[in-house]
Specification:
Blueprint: H1 2-8, E1 12-17, H2 24-36, E2 41-44, H3 49-52, H4 62-73, E3 77-81, H5 89-94, H6 121-138, E4 144-148, H7 163-176, H8 181-187, H9 215-243, E5 249-250, E6 252-254, H10 262-265, E7 273-275, H11 285-297, E8 305-309, H12 328-338, E9 341-346, H13 372-385, E10 399-402, H14 405-411, H15 423-436, E11 441-444, E12 455-458, H16 466-477, E13 481-485, H17 507-510, E14 512-517, E15 525-526, E16 528-530, E17 540-541, E18 545-549, E19 553-558, E20 567-574, E21 577-582, H18 588-602, E22 615-621, E23 626-632, E24 638-648, E25 656-662, E26 667-671
Parallel strand pairs: 1-2, 1-9, 2-3, 3-4, 4-5, 6-7, 7-8, 8-9, 10-11, 10-12, 12-13, 13-21
Antiparallel strand pairs: 14-18, 15-17, 16-19, 19-20, 20-21, 22-23, 23-26, 24-25, 24-26
Helix pairs in contact: 6-9, 7-9, 15-18
The structure holds alpha-D-galactopyranose.
Length: 689
C-alpha cells in the first residue's frame, strides 16, 4: 500500500465513520476529537446508500460534501465506502427479485442489511450506477484516499438459492467443466444415488433435499457463491478503476469467516483489509487472532494489510459481550501491527444512539470523550503516529502452515467420520503449538512456494490436490521438515477420495498408510504412551486410526484394549527431509512437545530465544531495518533481555535498550539501532493539534 503510506506518512488510524447518524454540532465535535486522537483515516459512509440515493437515480451528495470537506480540512483521509452493503428500502420495494433465498426457500426480507442476491443483475446494476455517480462526484476531492467496496461480503448472506442464482450457477458450471456434462458427472460422482445429469440445465443449487445433497455439488456451490460475491466486488471495482485510476480499492473480510475464499479474492484487490473481533472472554483469543492475521498476510505474500475494524471494547453480537480490560485494546492493536497491519481502525468512531448496534462500543462511547475507552483510543493514536517506519514493512518466516478455504468447506460437509473434526480447531491445535514454540509463522495456500521454509505443517488439510500434495512431497525430498495431522490429504479437489490407503498422495513421504478411521465417541479419551517410554502429559481425544507403517518409526503409540502398541504418531526420513504424522489429537502439552521437536530439528529459530511464557515476539522488515514487537499476553510482569541493543521506538528520543520491562498487557516496539534518537520530522505524519 505504497500510495496510502505516502499519503498518510505512517500507519492509518481511525474507524468506521457514520456521520449521517448525527447532528451538525456532534459532527463538528467529531472533527475536533479526531484531530486530538491523531485519527488520519476513516471508513466513511459504509451504510449510506439510502441517504445519497433516497429514490431511484435521485443522487444527493450534499450531506457528504460537507463531511468530506471537513475531513480534508482536518487532514483525515477518507476510505470512502461505495455504500452498497445495504440496499435502500426503495430498491427492495421496486425489485423484490433482488432479495436472497435460503436453501429451504425462505425469502430474506429487507429490515436488516446485506439483503441482496449476489447474482442479481438488478442489484449489480444499481450498485454500479451508484458507484459511477459517487466516483465521478468525488474523484478530485482532496479527502479521497482509498475506496472501501461493499462491506464484509458474505457475512450474512453468503449463498442464495433463488432461480436467478440457479441459472448463474449453471453458467458457472458450464464454464468450469468446459461445457462437458460428463466432466461434471465424473467430478460429482453422480453415478452414486442415480444423480447422473444429461444436460447442464437439469442442475440445481444444493437446495433442501430429503437427505445429504451431493457433497461435490455442495463444494462447487460454495466456490460459485464466493465467486458470485467477488463478481459483485469486481463490478464496482471496474467502475472505480476507470473513473479514479489512481485511488486503490479494498474490501474488508471478517476474520475467521468461512464463506469467502480470501486467497481467491486477494489477487483481484489493491489492498486486503480485515475486521477482527477476538472475544475478551476467551483466554487464548490472541492466538486465534494471530492465526487469522497470518492467514490474511498469506494472501498478499507477506505484504502489509489493513485492520479496518476491531471493537474499542465490547461487541453486541455474542450471547455475552465482554469488554476489553484496560490495556487490552492497545495490546491487541499492536498485535495486529506486529502481524503486518498497516492500519488500526475500529467499528466505529461514535457509538450509535439507536439501531441494532447501539450497545457495540465506539471510539467515542455514549459517555463521551472523557471515558476510559476514549482515553485509551487517543493514547494509542498518538503512540501509533510515533512509529511511521512500520508502515510498508514486510514479514517472512521460516515456518508455514498450509491453509485452504476449499478444504475448510469440504472438511465440514455432512456425512463424514466425525462431526467433531472442525477445521479451525485442527489448525489452531498446531498453530497454537508453533505459537508457543515462539517461531514466526506464515499461513499460506497449498500452491505457495515452499522452498524458503524450513518446516511446513498440514493440520487437517482434508482436501489436497495431487499437484499440491506433490509439491509437499518434493519439499520433504529436498530437505524440508513436515508435520501432517490425521484426516489430511484424503480427497482431491472434487471431494473424491485419493485411493490406495490414506493419505495416498503423501504416503511415500510419510512412510505409512492408514487403513481405517476410528473416531472416538463424544467425550471419549484416547490412551497413549510414548514409544521411548517417557511419561506423557495426558490422554488424547477425538480420533484414532489404523496406521500401517512403511518405513516410518512410531513416536507415540496407542494404548489399551484393541489398540495396544499401534502407531499414533510417527516420524520418517524421506530424501533429505523428515516427515511426521499424527494419527490422533494428543493432549496439548504432548502435541506441543512433538511440534517443538519438529521445530528444533528443522532449524527454524524462534523470533527471540528464551522468551517467558505469555510473551509474544514478531518481526517486521523494512528497507535496511527491522522492527521487533514484544507483547505480554500474560498476567505477570517480565524483564526481557535482548540479544543486541535496539531503539525503543515508543519512548521519547528513542533510547537504545538491551533490556525491556513488560507489564501485564505491556508492549514494546524496538527498532534497528539506527532508528534511535529523535524522530526525523519528514517521516512524521502531518501534525494536527
Ligand atoms: C462487522 C461490520 C460492521 C459492524 C461490526 C460490529 O464487522 O462490518 O458494520 O456490524 O461488525 O462488530
Amino acid at each position: 500500500m505504497r500510495v496510502l503510506r505516502s499519503r498518510l506518512g505512517g500507519l492509518a488510524f481511525g474507524g468506521d465513520y457514520n456521520p449521517e447518524q448525527w447532528d451538525a454540532a456532534t459532527r463538528a465535535e467529531d472533527l475536533r476529537l479526531m484531530a486530538d486522537a491523531k485519527v488520519n483515516m476513516v471508513n466513511l459512509g459504509v451504510f449510506a446508500w439510502a441517504r445519497v440515493e433516497p429514490a431511484r437515480d435521485a443522487y444527493d451528495f450534499t450531506f457528504f460534501d460537507e463531511v468530506m470537506d471537513g475531513l480534508a480540512a482536518h487532514g483525515v483521509t477518507a476510505d470512502l465506502a461505495t455504500m452498497t452493503a445495504s440496499p435502500p428500502p426503495w430498491l427492495g420495494h421496486e425489485h423484490p427479485e433482488i432479495l436472497p433465498v435460503t436453501a429451504d426457500g425462505t425469502v430474506l426480507s429487507p429490515g436488516g442489511r446485506q439483503h441482496f442476491c449476489p447474482s442479481s443483475p438488478v442489484y449489480r446494476d444499481r450498485a454500479a450506477r451508484l458507484v459511477e455517480a459517487l466516483a465521478t462526484h468525488y474523484r478530485d476531492h482532496p479527502a479521497l484516499g482509498l475506496w472501501h467496496i461493499g462491506n464484509e461480503y458474505g457475512i450474512h448472506v453468503a449463498e442464495c438459492f433463488c432461480d436467478v442464482s440457479a441459472a448463474d450457477f449453471r453458467r458457472w458450471l458450464h464454464e468450469r467443466y468446459a461445457g462437458d456434462i460428463d466432466a461434471l458427472n465424473a467430478a460429482w460422482s453422480t453415478d452414486f444415488w442415480s444423480q447422473r445429469y444429461a444436460a447442464f440445465d437439469q442442475v440445481l443449487p444444493p437446495r433442501a433435499a430429503p437427505t445429504y445433497p451431493n457433497p461435490s455439488q455442495q463444494l462447487d456451490f460454495k466456490r460459485f457463491s464466493s465467486e458470485a460475491l467477488r463478481a459483485c466486488f469486481e463490478v464496482e471495482r471496474d467502475v472505480l478503476r476507470r473513473v479514479t485510476p489512481d485511488v486503490p480499492v479494498t474490501t474488508n473480510f471478517l476474520a475467521g469467516h468461512k464463506t469467502v475464499d480470501v486467497y481467491d479474492w486477494a489477487p483481484h484487490m489493491d489492498a486486503v483489509a480485515f475486521d477482527s473481533y477476538p472475544d475478551p472472554h476467551e483466554k487464548h483469543a490472541h492466538i486465534g487472532a494471530a492465526l487469522s492475521y497470518d492467514a490474511l498476510r498469506g494472501a498478499v505474500d507477506g505484504a502489509p494489510w489493513l485492520l479496518t475494524e476491531q471493537a474499542p471494547s465490547a461487541v453486541n453480537w455474542r450471547s455475552r459481550n465482554g469488554g476489553k480490560a484496560p490495556g487490552q485494546m492497545r495490546l491487541w492493536s499492536w498485535q495486529a501491527v506486529a502481524h503486518g497491519a498497516d492500519a488500526v481502525m475500529y467499528f466505529q468512531w461514535r457509538q450509535s444512539r439507536g439501531g441494532a448496534e447501539k450497545f457495540h462500543s465506539g471510539m467515542v462511547p455514549h459517555g463521551g470523550a472523557d471515558t476510559r475507552v476514549h482515553r485509551e483510543v487517543r493514547a494509542l493514536g498518538r503512540e501509533l503516529a510515533a512509529v511511521p517506519e512500520l508502515a510498508g514493512t514486510h514479514t517472512r518466516n521460516e515456518v508455514a502452515v498450509l491453509f485452504d478455504w476449499n478444504s475448510w468447506w469440504a472438511l465440514e460437509l455432512d456425512s463424514h467420520p466425525s462431526e467433531g473434526v472442525r477445521c479451525i480447531e485442527q489448525v489452531l491445535d498446531y498453530y497454537g503449538a508453533l505459537f508457543e514454540a515462539g517461531v514466526g509463522i506464515d499461513v499460506v495456500h497449498p500452491s505457495a512456494d515452499l522452498s524458503g521454509y524450513k518446516l511446513v505443517v498440514l493440520p487437517g488439510l482434508y482436501l489436497l490436490s495431487e499437484e499440491h500434495a506433490g509439491r509437499v512431497v518434493d519439499f520433504v525430498a529436498a530437505g524440508g521438515h513436515l508435520v501432517v495431522s490425521f484426516f489430511t490429504g484424503i480427497v482431491d479437489e472434487h471431494d473424491r477420495v485419493h485411493l490406495g490407503g490414506y493419505p495416498a498422495p503423501l504416503g511415500k513421504a510419510l512412510g505409512l498408510h492408514v487403513e481405517e478411521f476410528w473416531p472416538t465417541a463424544e467425550g471419549e479419551s484416547v490412551a497413549l504412551r510414548a514409544a521411548d517410554g517417557e511419561p506423557l502429559a495426558g490422554d488424547g481425544s477425538l480420533w484414532r486410526e489404523d496406521v500401517v507403517l512403511a518405513g516410518a518409526r512410531p513416536e507415540l503409540l496407542f494404548a489399551g484394549p484393541d489398540w495396544e502398541g499401534r502407531p499414533a504418531a510417527t516420524v520418517h526420513t524421506f530424501g533429505g527431509g523428515t516427515a511426521r504424522y499424527v494419527a490422533t489429537r494428543p493432549h496439548p502439552a504432548d502435541l506441543g512437545a512433538l511440534v517443538a521437536r519438529a521445530v528444533a530439528e528443522s532449524g527454524a529459530a524462534p523470533v527471540l530465544p528464551g522468551l517467558p511464557a505469555g510473551v509474544e515476539a514478531a518481526l517486521r522488515r523494512g528497507d535496511g531495518y527491522d522492527v521487533l514487537v514484544l507483547l505480554n499476553h500474560g498476567d505477570t510482569a517480565h524483564d526481557v533481555d535482548l540479544p543486541e541493543p535496539r531503539a525503543d521506538l515508543l519512548a521519547a528520543d528513542r533510547p537504545e535498550v538491551r533490556r525491556v520491562a513488560l507489564e501485564p498487557r505491556g508492549v514494546a516496539v524496538l527498532g534497528s539501532p539506527h532508528l534511535g534518537g529523535p524522530r526525523p520530522d519528514d517521516a512524521a505524519p502531518a501534525a494536527r493539534d
